[in-house]
Predict the 3D structure of the following.
Amino acid sequence: MINHPFLCFVPILLIIAQSAEGCYTSIFAFGDSLTDNGNLLALSAPRIIHQGRLPNGETYFHHPTGRCCDGRLIVDFLAQQFGLPIPPPYTEVSKERTMDVRAGVNFAVAGARALDTDFYDKIGIIDPVTNDTLRVQLDWFKHMLPSICGPEKDCGGQLKSSLVLLGPFGGNDYRYALFQGASLAERKLLAHLITDAAVSAVNELVELGVGAVMVPGLVPDGCLAVSLTYFGSPNTGNYDLSTGCINWLNEFAEYHNELLQTKLNMARKRHPTAAIIYADYYNAILQLYRNPEEYGFRRTTAACCGDGGPYNYNKEVQCGDPPTTVCPDPSVYINWDGPHFTEAANRWITSALLRGPYTLPHLDTSCISEAASARHFTDA
């Protein structure tokens, strides 16, 4: 059992979220490696990529699942909190035609970008991981609608009570652009295109009948071990000395997130009856770096799983590939493998989203029982 001080907040949530009928009857997810629970692993077969090897998955599943994490992701915790099965990866259900997908499917693919491959090909930015962008994932979802809606083909009724986790998107778009020398002006142009793509997807999902769409903003990229390794500098003025994070990367994430929120407000005006929710991953995560001990963490910027160096990250050797090693206790680390978070961090982020300060408007938590919340936030 992993104990974290934030668990004391759960009873506060439960005062306003007693067990009742309501909430969501299914959860569908789109995104990149922060949300992918096995799609890239399956799409890469027969080659076994690093997230298909231990220690990935060791904490909760006790075997690798394709998640870039030692255990559960935010989408997994959300599903469990709402009393839903963890949504299976699209690659699994597309092969097993008999699976009931009405409770949800995960379409996210590690490495996915918001903008289409054709766009990046024209401007010379190469993605070495995947071509399964936001648009591809949406197409998979629409192709699966007959199975999701059931024999009655009541998509409106089925999707109205669904929660869609849309993202986060943009991290890979910006990272690959930065690796290939994009200027700040070029990245700001990308930000408008990326947030347009995200909001276009929101509009499309709502028009298909989805009742609630949660759109996360970017994480504080300047705090990640991968970013600190790639973009580290001897100039201490580049860093927030209280957290060790790179200022200019976090400032750009803030720029993206403000732009996204402005455009989501426009989508809310267009769809006043839909719940279009902004999930503030950025500030929910930044609290862990600002006050790590308050939340049970002792290691912040270094990765738990890696191959040495100041931040235990080596771009040539990913977690799961030899000769990487893993820390003895992932629960005291925020960062798992360089770009991603530990289950312990994902657990806290989910709790923060459910408690309300980091979602706007708030998620419907009316159906979360005290027993279920305690069980899923404390089991290991």
Remarks:
- Residues 107 and 140 are 7 Å apart (CA to CA).
